[in-house]
Amino acid sequence: MKERNARDPTFLNSKAREPIPQLIGFVVLLFSSLIATTKATAPVPFLFSSSSPKPAPLPILPLPSAAQLSWQLGEMALFLHFGTNTFTDSEWGTGHADPSIFNPTKLDARQWVQVAKSAGFSRVILTTKHHDGFCLWPSAYTDYSVRSASWKNGAGNVLADLADAAREAGIGLGVYLSPWDRHEACYGRTNEYNEFYMAQMSELLTGYGEIKEVWLDGAKGEGEKDMEYFFDSWFALIHQLQPGAVIFSDAGPDTRWIGDEAGVAGSTCWSLFNRSSAKIGDTDPQYSRGGDPYGHDWVPAECDVSIRPGWFWHTSERPKSALTLLDIYYKSVGRNCLFLLNVPPNSSGLISDEDIQVLEEFAKIRQTIFSHNLAKNAVLTASSKRGGIDESQFDPLHVLEEGIFTYWAPEEYQSDWSINLDFGVSLSFNVLQVQEPIHKGQRIIEFHLDIHTEDGEWKTVISGTTVGYQRLLRFVTVKSQYLRIVIDKSRADPLISYLGIYLDPFSIGNDASGTSSPSNFNSTEVIRLTSSNHSLNANFNSTEVIRLTSSNHSLSANFNSTEVIRLTSSNHSLSAKM
Ligand SMILES: *[C@@H]1O[C@H](CO)[C@@H](O)[C@H](O)[C@H]1NC(C)=O
Ligand SMILES: *[C@@H]1O[C@H](CO)[C@@H](O)[C@H](O)[C@H]1NC(C)=O
Ligand SMILES: *[C@@H]1O[C@H](CO)[C@@H](O)[C@H](O)[C@H]1NC(C)=O
To answer: With contact defined as beta carbons under 8 Å apart, do 148 and 100 qualify?
Structure first.
């Protein structure tokens, strides 16, 4: 290996602007070993040299705005579809439902927000008005709202309750205001309806504190009155009233629809996009899913999907399993997108117990997988380092610091770009996480992961296209002491802000192609994880196989109708029903 070891003492010859715990640890360690070997005879002059730091590399356009960055760092948002449909067992209300039926007697927006927050969602987005036109706030421009509801004798305001709860909990608030309105009489008269719509939008954006996201669709039913939506005027109004908000639509301007309602992004997914190439209500799903490597606008994608078959709550429907949500997480957050999961409150005005249970399991599963980054204890080396060996600002060690704002950068004008890891011992893993510092643009086009085999060869385990904010790749479990991440193609010098290597014991099969659907679980299955010792209690169906291997927690189980179970661990309890 030609790479220099990052623990080489020469790397101390620089100014770490933000010392991190690992770095301090190494410094202490190196000091003690220097003192031991030199018998503390003299100070070590190179430790205190003071050359100027190398500036950061130029960004590559387009770049995210501050609102887009904050949106992306949030990773997951909870969508709340709620309204008269919740009481009429429908998905698309006609606009003629009697508003008095809206009576969520136990409504508690704090419960919604707590469910979102404890499961790791950074914002909540409410359908303040769906296609049926019923408003969850007392709009001055229509009576078809909570003012005409039985709930609180017309004195309730769902949006106000949610805004208060979100502010208290410190999570973001977003609103959906349906352009299509099946109740409003002026719908169909272009100027009049656009004025009405913008008046309602102004109520939402001026009466409830900070709004982080405005979610729009171009929906208009078949055979509906022909009229034009003045999107450009709406967008300008939204940005004027809420400069920190991102606007979602099929075509941006700030975040784009991924092109399906399954929550799944393309396995190549650029935040780059041409807004002018997309039309709201009439997009090319392929273009939406993949973005555009030549796009001149920054418009990252949002993956919306419902936890249940429908968007509104129906007594007959059940939520997806936690493992299905995990699969969608890999295919949304793990493909440079935001995961927008709809969890509809029920007709009591609360999120149902079965949905809460699934969300808790989903959070525990993510915690189990992603809280053990095997790379944390690895020795890292890079093919080169920006600014040369004296510069610590771009050291490969930064890829183990959480977040995107510190990063490894290679020396300029190189053609080989790689980071090597030495675990010290052979470890098993099946997930790679890579993050780019996207505030400096999205760069990486192609990359791959190699392991060092016992016969001394490098062998490719998985390759990928595009990284962006975050890339998660799953593959068949491999075991190795040495591995390397190689960047094969990049729009500019590749920068890496985070690397994770994990063992995911839950995902079955692999997702190497990016098209397979590995987790085919049915709704009867429940996985419960308890406590930090990762005991697993699961009901599996007969074809399911779980393999879990790691150096200090080794468990291997095959479940099928013949109940073959092998357990090789004293610190994992496992109970299974078949
Ligand atoms: C997007 O715009 C760039 C020029 O800025 C162009 O090269 C590229 O072909 C466009 N993409 C599409 C799909 O039109
Ligand atoms: C709504 O969910 C709550 C649990 O949060 C539950 O107690 C209540 O019975 C549910 N209401 C309906 C109508 O299912
Ligand atoms: C692991 O967790 C299970 C379930 O919580 C518990 O019964 C068991 O005693 C724990 N084992 C250890 C070693 O902590």
So the answer is: yes
Residue pair 432/485 in contact by the 8 Å Cβ criterion: yes
- Give distance in angstroms: CA of 488 to centre of ligand 3: 45
Q: 508 falls in which pLDDT band (50, 70, 90)?
A: low
- Please report which helix (H) or strand (E) contains residue 490, including its range: strand 471-490
CA–CA dist 307, 531 (Å, integer) = 25
pLDDT at residue 29 tops 70: no
Nearest C-alpha neighbor of 174 from the set 233, 122, 104: 122
Is residue 517 a part of any domain in this protein?
no
pLDDT tens by residue, 395-434:
999 999 999 999 999 999 999 999 999 999 999 999 999 9
User: Measuring CA to CA, which residue among 302, 266, 322 is closest to residue 465?
Assistant: 266
Asked if 213 and 205 touch (Cβ cutoff 8 Å), the reply is no
Helix axes 190-206, 231-241, angle to 10 degrees: 20
| Distance from the alpha carbon of residue 142 to the mean position of ligand 3, in angstroms | 58
Residue 220 is encoded by which pair of tokens? 């208009």
Residue 82 pLDDT grade (very low, low, confident, very high; cuts 50, 70, 90): very high
In a domain, 524, yes or no: no
Report the range of poorest mean pLDDT among 220-224, 282-286, 383-387, 567-571: 567-571
Query: Which residue lies with its CA nearest to atom 7 of ligand 1?
Result: 294
In a domain, 508, yes or no: no
Domain count, the chain: 3
pTM over the 0.85 mark: no
Distance (Å, whole) CA 308 – CA 37: 65
In a domain, 303, yes or no: yes
The boundaries of the domain holding residue 550 are 531-577
pLDDT score recorded for residue 143: 98
Residue of 352, 354, 357, 358 best suited for mutating to test ligand 2, as the one with most atoms within 8 Å of CB: 352
Query: CA torsion, points 157, 159, 164, 165, in degrees to nearest 10?
Result: 110
Any idea which ligand is nearest the CA of 105? Answer: 2
Whether 348 is in the pocket of ligand 2, judged by its Cβ within 6 Å, is yes
* DSSP conformation class of 33: H
Token reading at 492: 């500019």
d(CA 187, CA 321): 40
